[in-house]
Amino acid sequence: MATTASGNNIQAPIFPGSGEFLMNISIGTPAVPMSAILDTGSDLIWTQCMPCTNARTVASTCIAMETSPPLKGSWHKTLLLFEDSGSGPVSIPNIGFGCGVNNQGTGFGQGSGLVGLGRGPLSLVSQLGLGKFSYCLTSISENKTSNVLFGALADLNYSTSGASHRTPLVQNPFQPSFYYVSLEGITIGETLLPMPKSTMKLKEDGSGGMIIDSGTTLTYLQEEAFRALKMEFKSQMKLRVSESSDTIGLDLCFDLPTEDLSEIAVPKLKLHFEGMDLELPPENYMISDPSMGVVCLAMAASSRMSILGNIQQQNLLVLHDLEKETVSFIPTQCDQL
């Protein structure tokens, strides 16, 4: 029996997919279970609806929602059911969600839709009227679960002791739905990359800047910054640059002498945000593929905004405090949260 909640005291399990993280929800009455991608870079909650012209996989869920005449997309309000990992199922009435019948694109191998957690009015965060939420992403290569935490539960696991883990959120009037942060520099090993603080700063015309996106796999850096990072990595890694980078689809790969990444000397990577430094463990920026015999940098260049992707957010409690307009990155063993 599901209990009804306001959304201010909910936790829900999340688990890794194929480059994305998913949560199990149910929509409608009677409830139809589905897995949906957890996406801070999106506003909408949506799923595939009948007749599902381009359902991505056999495992994808198709919701039967009547629209007359049939529409390419439609908007509905219904009951949303969370598989709450604390006290059992929790239902929330009158949650708006979108229906798509002709869905195309990659990333939906396991998910039938999205749960948008962005700033926009149609996101789950906005519909629940939340002042804060947090999530903790387990290793994308392991089949372990963690939680997304809403409202009062969001910062229960946050400790204010020690070094600062908090940086201000930045508003972009041209892209108001995204969670922007100020990345001021990057250190590789002991070398601060030679670029001005303004390189990845949000511009007056709304271009540039960096957003936090749980729905994007890799981290993307502004082209000038990525060129500097790539050059410094090449100089500090004691491995031969692989010729297989184009085949794998990543920009910088090295020939792998061993299957164990821990045995490889990988230079430290530290991100300098406004008010805090975030040093990432190697598994948050290096991907090994023993079958191809390579280890690759899990970053790429962007001609537009920079994006902090989910690989870089593994085993961090990422706390969005929308009342204080801050985001915190707290190193956490997420499967034990």
Automatic annotation (TrEMBL):
Peptidase A1 domain segment(s): 21-330
CDD domains: pepsin_A_like_plant (cd05476)
GO CC terms: extracellular region
Gene3D superfamilies linked to this entry: Acid Proteases (2.40.70.10)
Keyword Flavoprotein annotated: no
Biological process according to GO: proteolysis
Keywords linked to the UniProt accession: Aspartyl protease, Glycoprotein, Hydrolase, Protease
Alphabetized GO MF terms: aspartic-type endopeptidase activity
A Pfam family the protein falls into: TAXi_C
Keyword Protease applies: yes
Stored PANTHER family: OS04G0448300 PROTEIN, OS07G0603500 PROTEIN-RELATED
Family classification: Belongs to the peptidase A1 family.
Name of the protein described by the UniProt record: Eukaryotic aspartyl protease family protein
